[in-house]
Specification:
By secondary structure, the chain is mainly α. The protein has three domains: about 80 residues, 434 Repressor (Amino-terminal Domain), CATH 1.10.260; about 180 residues, no CATH class; about 60 residues, no CATH class. The chain contains 18 helices and four strands.
Length: about 350
């Protein structure tokens, strides 16, 4: 195709253009800003979406590949295609949180849905295999979190002793990931480019997927892995937000399910009975004890601190101060790394 051909207007379906923008979570002004180099204004984009004029082929390529992250051919469809929305994928997420989902996360959600289709094509016999996590484990609503965690650990056949012998959190994540993928729970790591989200999952009876934000520390990735696994056991899709206080702003069932997922992840990785036994060996709880316990279980210091708070071994003020201090240290480390 010559440079001259790239400058010809191409006939498109206005409703598809509008659909692609809206499902990317972008305003007309944001799209125009991304197309500054193509000298496209907000008024021009509004006109295209009304069917008054059309982008050149070069402009369409930028829209499709750089802005909307969509296949070029899609824009020639006579109507927007059927596609699961974030609301359908994350039924337990409040509407205000759905609206906050970033363009990048919306793209990863679409990618995850496509991967589920590929998995279905490649693993037609998945549900008939000897081990299938969601077929074999159906957690009753009345079951305790401790019993739920115990059943999952027994199913994965990884003891607490084996967990404690792993070298570091990086190895621990790999071992947990391998164990889940051996029973048809598919785990992917991506750069979310969004520090407010640690991961998400899409429920499917046959091909459940978990996405992990690989920019997070290994200990956070491990916790997110089991937070999302609890969503799958509850037959829901979900998003893990590591923001302190996030759950406090949720209401009703939304809050209940997020609390359950956090409780499950904490109990699975740091079982209460074992943790309480270790605490009895300590005359007092100091910073070095928290570090040692976090290394023992391959979890973050925050997980250990939360368990101590629940047992009233530290106060809410002490907890908040420590979490804030560690958060600032992590931000400073990231800032130096990016310089």
């Amino acid at each position: 195709m010559s440079k001259t051909d790239l400058n010809y207007d191409v006939p498109l379906t206005p409703s598809v253009l509008r659909w692609a923008r809206e499902t990317s979570g972008l305003s007309i002004e944001e799209v125009a800003n991304k197309l500054k180099r193509k000298t496209v204004t907000s008024e021009t984009i509004e006109a295209w979406e009304r069917g008054e004029g059309a982008p050149t082929y070069a402009q369409l390529e930028s829209l499709a590949y750089d802005v909307y992250k969509r296949p070029l051919a899609l824009f020639f469809f006579p109507a927007p295609p059927e596609e699961k929305t974030p609301r359908q994928a994350f039924r337990t997420l409040p509407e205000q949180e759905i609206r906050k989902i970033s363009t990048r996360l919306r793209y990863l959600l679409r990618q995850a849905q496509v991967r589920q289709i590929y998995l279905a094509e490649l693993h037609e016999d998945a549900f008939a295999r000897v081990r299938h996590f969601l077929r074999d484990l159906r957690i009753d609503p009345g079951i305790s979190v401790a019993e739920m965690a115990k059943r999952v650990r027994e199913y994965l056949a990884i003891s607490l002793e084996a967990q404690s012998e792993w070298k570091n959190a990086g190895e621990a994540f790999k071992r947990w990931r391998d164990a889940l993928e051996s029973c048809e729970v598919f785990v992917f790591k991506e750069a979310f480019k969004d520090e407010t989200v640690s991961g998400f999952c899409l429920f499917d009876e046959f091909f459940p997927v978990i996405y992990i934000n690989n920019s997070k520390p290994d200990t956070r990735q491990i916790f997110t892995l089991f937070h999302e696994l609890a969503h799958l056991l509850s037959r829901t899709g979900g998003i893990d937000k590591p923001i302190e206080g996030y759950i406090r702003h949720l209401r009703g069932y939304d809050r209940q399910i997020e609390m359950l997922c956090n409780q499950f992840a904490a109990e699975f990785l740091v079982p209460d009975t074992d943790f309480d036994w270790r605490l009895k060996q300590l005359s007092s709880v100091r910073g070095q004890n928290v570090e040692e316990l976090s290394r023992q279980y391959h979890v973050s210091r925050e997980v250990i601190l939360r368990k101590l708070l629940d047992r009233k071994r530290i106060t809410q003020v002490e907890y908040d101060q420590k979490v804030e201090k560690w958060s600032k240290q992590a931000q400073n480390a990231d800032g130096k790394k990016n310089k």
